[in-house]
Structures are given as structure tokens and as C-alpha cells.
């Protein structure tokens, strides 16, 4: 069964209440943004278990190839048409995301019920918090409950809508309130100009609505709610919130803004406090990174500085040298993973399933071994549970073997050994395609897909990997980092 939401539970104490947060448009689209959202949920929301619900809300800067072609074509017709075409496409993109938000509301409660049953069976009551199109998701979910009042077994307490990008009529509100035990709260701001994009609707996020508990967030723009979630929860008197400040963001990132190494929490923090029982994890990661001639790591460096130097060199290796010189730093770890995900062609479905850094690293590591070992490898299907029981020495040997497969010579040797199989497969498909060419005008569009379905696609990816500067060092280093994160129980979220 296809799951439309990916839920992530933050560290918690036992409780029978869950607070479920749903983001809006252009949010939760990558690991960096997901972690930022998770860190803005106050730890003092002690009344329940805090859960983030991620859905495909789109991103205003992520455009398809069709959009790129449209923009280029428009620019050729008229210079100013480029910007107009881009804006028009983004408006259409927002409309699509808006429609998807409504559809997500239809499945939210059922999928949330399944998640709670599997992971938190003790939960009997939920509070719902939605921002922007996330508010639209929640309203859609409540509307479904109005239509099907017996369709959900858990009690719904407070429902908080922040800058909700949805229109609700006053006469509709009593029906929505009848579905919940707690309060129906509309946190709005007349200063929110972003909601004017919803030109055909009078959005809750900009106006009071009769029968709601309306709370004015004076001066708030559309993007001010998440960074000031503490204030919003305080002003709205949200269920169970105690009102203390949440200082982690300042401690972690405010004091060290200019140090791009120490603020790369997904990597630097992992090795900052290594347990005595895992002394070789960092050394193995350094070993593989040093295989690149583009890195400079000092063997005689003080042990307390090694994890700093490793993080710095990993970032630099992940970025292009000229770009590094311009921005005076390399790429953060999360961006390097996204780059590798694109290189290994992890599709949108696979990426959507990766709510944590562990899940993305795991998906990448499995793909690394799958591509490098066409004959099959046990780690191409391994899970976190499998790795927990695997000894470091055993795993390191596998990664060493992986590193040996990433050179250009090894790549061609491997491709030659499976040449007969690939040749037979490709030739048969091309033969079929040739026959089909007499009846199909889309042959050229089909050929890349046909090739990708064979070992040829894998060979091409491996060749590109071997030719990319630094990739042969980054890939085994990521494999070691993943293993370290599993062993150390570091999910990268806090």
C-alpha cells in the first residue's frame, strides 16, 4: 500500500497524547529542512509525543525539465518572457500543491492511525498543528470526519491552524468543531502577504472567522510561524505547552554561525564525542577520504582536531574547487548526500521515504553496493538492524572492497565480465525496439529507458562515478559514516 505521509517521532517520554505537526508548501523537502523543523518544536511541549508528518508539498525552486524548456523557449521569443514564464509556472505549481494538500487531508488520519498503532499504541488522543498548506491538510481531514463521523477512533484535542492557506466559511465551523474534543484555533496575521497567492480564496491565515478561536499574530509574515513556534504556542495557550524557551538553536548554531565545519551538525557532531568502544570509526573514514589526491589530512594531527579536519576536508571534497574558493567553504554534508542521491538516480519516491539522515544514508549505501557488485552483495539489501549485529572488522572489509570497485580500471574490468549478459539483454531489447519502430513514433524516447533497465545503465553510472573528482573517496567515507551513525545511535536530528 502506498503511504502518502512519512511520520517522524522526536525523542519523547511515555504519553497517551501525541502532537502532530504538518508543514506547508515548500517545506520538509530535504533533510536539512526537516531537521530545522524538528528543532523548532519546543522540548517543553510535555503533554505528549511530538510527531512530524511530511508530505510532498513541492518546492518553489525545484523545476522539471519541461519547465526549464518552457522558460528557455519563452526567453527566445521575448527577453522578458523568461521571468513571466517562470512566475506562471510557479503559480501553477502552487495550485498543484494546493490541490494535493486537499487530497492529503483525506488520508492523513488513516495513515496517522496506522503509524500510531505500529509505533505508539498507547496514544489515545492527538493534537493537530498545521502551517500554511499544512492547515489546508488539517481542514480537509476534519471535513472528511464531518462526512464520515465514525471514520476515526482516536480523540482529537486542540487543532491549531497557523497561517492556514484555506478558506473556511463561518457556517462550516460548528461541524468541524463537533469532530474534536478541544479547541479550534486560527492563528492569523493581516501582514501575511504570501497568502495573497491564494487569490481565489479568503484564507484563514489573514482573517478572523466567526466561530473560530481567532488569535492575531500581529506583524507576523508567512515564514515567521515556525521560527517563533514558542511564541505562537504561548499566545494561543496551546494544550500542554509550559512556555519555557527552547535554547538549542542558539547554542548550536547562533554562537558558531561563521564556522561552517562545527555547524555541520550531521557530520561534525557525529564524531565529536566518540565512545571508547568505537575507536576506529573516524580512522576508517579518514583512510578512505585520503584516497583522494584532493584532500590533505595530517596523520600527526592531534586526536581532538581530527574530526574537525575530517569534516572540513569532506566538505571541500564534496564541492567544486572553484565554487569552494568563491564561497570560502565546501558543501555541507546534507548537500553532498543530495548530490550523491542525484548521481545514483534515487527517485522521488525513494527520497520521500527518507525522513532521517539514517534512512537516506542507508538508501545510498545499498545503492553503492548494488551498483558496484552486479553479481550481488549482502549489503545491497542490508538494514540498520543488520548492521547493528555486524562487526566493525567485517563491515570495514566490505567497504574496502567497495572502494576497490570505484576506480576506472576496476569499473571496466567489472563491465567486461558481465559484457555477454549485458550485450544479450540490450541486443534483444533493441531488436524488439527496432521492430516496434515501424509502429511507434516514440522510439527515441524509449531507448534511454530500455538501456536503463539493463546492466548498461549501471555500467554508465559506475563510469561516471570513477570519472567524478572525489567520488571514489566520498562514497566509501559515507558508507563508514552510516555505519558509525548506526553504531552510535545518532539519528542526526538533535
Commentary on this structure:
With 494 residues, this protein is an alpha/beta fold. The protein is globular, with a radius of gyration of 25 Å. The protein contains 21 helices and seven strands. The two termini are 31 Å apart. It has helices at 31-39, 65-77, 81-119, 133-147, 173-177, 229-235, 248-254, 268-272, 281-289, 303-318, 321-327, 333-343, 348-352, 357-372, 384-388, 392-404, 408-417, 419-436, 443-452, 455-467, 471-488, and strands spanning 6-9, 17-22, 49-54, 125-131, 155-162, 184-188, 213-216. Residues 244-257, 419-444 and 446-454 have low confidence and may be disordered. It has a seven-stranded mixed β-sheet with strand order 1-3-2-4-5-6-7, with helices on both faces.
Blueprint of the fold:
Elements: E1 6-9, E2 17-22, H1 31-39, E3 49-54, H2 65-77, H3 81-119, E4 125-131, H4 133-147, E5 155-162, H5 173-177, E6 184-188, E7 213-216, H6 229-235, H7 248-254, H8 268-272, H9 281-289, H10 303-318, H11 321-327, H12 333-343, H13 348-352, H14 357-372, H15 384-388, H16 392-404, H17 408-417, H18 419-436, H19 443-452, H20 455-467, H21 471-488
Parallel strand pairs: 2-3, 2-4, 4-5, 5-6, 6-7
Antiparallel strand pairs: 1-3
Helix pairs in contact: 2-3, 3-4, 9-10, 9-21, 12-14, 14-21, 16-21, 17-20, 18-19
Amino acid at each position: 500500500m502506498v503511504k502518502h505521509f512519512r511520520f517522524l517521532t522526536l525523542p519523547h517520554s511515555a504519553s497517551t497524547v501525541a502532537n502532530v505537526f504538518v508543514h506547508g508548501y515548500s517545506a520538509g523537502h530535504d533533510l536539512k529542512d526537516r531537521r530545522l523543523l524538528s528543532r523548532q518544536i519546543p522540548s517543553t511541549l510535555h503533554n505528549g509525543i511530538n510527531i512530524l508528518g511530511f508530505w510532498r508539498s513541492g518546492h518553489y525552486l525545484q523545476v522539471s525539465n519541461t519547465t526549464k524548456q518552457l522558460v528557455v523557449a519563452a526567453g527566445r521569443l521575448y527577453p522578458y518572457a523568461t521571468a513571466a514564464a517562470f512566475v506562471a509556472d510557479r503559480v501553477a505549481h502552487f495550485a498543484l500543491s494546493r490541490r494535493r494538500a486537499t487530497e492529503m487531508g483525506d488520508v492523513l488520519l488513516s495513515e496517522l492511525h496506522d503509524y500510531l498503532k505500529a509505533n505508539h499504541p498507547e496514544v489515545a488522543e492527538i493534537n493537530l498543528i498545521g502551517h500554511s498548506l499544512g492547515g489546508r491538510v488539517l481542514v480537509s481531514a476534519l471535513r472528511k470526519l464531518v462526512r464520515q463521523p465514525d471514520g476515526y477512533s482516536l480523540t482529537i484535542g486542540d487543532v491549531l491552524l497557523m497561517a492556514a492557506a484555506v478558506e473556511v466559511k463561518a457556517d462550516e465551523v460548528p461541524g468541524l468543531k463537533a469532530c474534536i474534543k478541544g479547541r479550534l484555533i486560527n492563528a492569523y496575521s493581516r501582514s501575511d502577504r504570501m497568502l495573497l497567492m491564494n487569490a481565489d480564496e479568503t484564507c484563514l491565515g489573514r482573517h478572523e472567522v466567526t466561530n473560530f478561536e481567532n488569535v492575531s499574530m500581529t506583524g507576523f509574515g508567512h515564514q515567521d510561524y515556525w521560527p517563533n513556534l514558542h511564541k505562537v504556542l504561548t499566545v494561543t495557550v496551546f494544550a500542554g505547552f509550559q512556555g519555557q524557551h527552547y535554547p538549542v538553536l542558539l547554542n548550536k548554531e547562533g554562537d558558531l554561525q561563521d564556522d561552517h565545519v562545527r555547524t555541520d551538525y550531521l557530520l561534525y557532531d557525529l564524531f565529536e564525542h566518540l565512545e571508547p568502544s568505537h575507536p576506529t570509526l573516524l580512522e576508517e573514514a579518514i583512510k578512505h577520504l585520503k584516497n583522494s589526491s584532493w584532500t590533505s589530512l595530517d596523520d600527526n594531527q592531534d586526536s581532538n582536531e581530527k574530526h574537525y579536519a575530517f569534516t572540513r576536508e569532506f566538505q571541500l571534497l564534496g564541492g567544486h574547487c572553484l565554487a569552494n574558493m568563491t564561497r570560502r567553504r565546501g558543501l555541507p554534508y546534507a548537500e553532498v548526500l543530495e548530490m550523491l542521491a542525484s548521481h545514483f538516480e534515487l527517485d522521488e519516491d525513494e527520497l520521500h521515504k527518507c525522513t532521517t539522515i539514517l534512512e537516506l544514508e542507508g538508501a545510498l549505501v545499498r545503492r553503492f553496493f548494488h551498483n558496484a557488485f552486479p553479481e550481488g552483495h549482502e549489503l545491497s539489501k542490508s538494514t540498520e538492524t543488520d548492521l547493528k549485529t555486524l562487526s566493525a572488522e567485517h563491515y570495514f572489509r566490505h567497504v574496502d572492497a567497495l572502494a576497490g570497485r570505484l576506480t576506472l580500471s576496476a569499473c571496466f574490468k567489472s563491465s567486461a565480465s558481465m559484457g555477454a549478459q549485458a550485450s544479450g539483454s540490450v541486443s534483444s531489447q533493441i531488436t524488439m525496439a527496432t521492430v516496434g519502430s515501424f509502429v511507434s513514433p516514440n522510439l527515441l524516447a524509449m531507448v534511454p529507458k530500455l538501456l536503463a533497465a539493463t546492466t548498461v545503465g549501471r555500467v554508465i553510472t559506475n563510469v561516471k562515478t570513477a570519472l567524478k573528482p572525489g567520488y571514489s573517496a566520498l562514497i566509501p567515507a559515507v558508507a563508514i559514516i552510516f555505519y558509525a551513525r548506526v553504531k552510535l545511535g545518532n539519528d542526526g536530528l538533535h
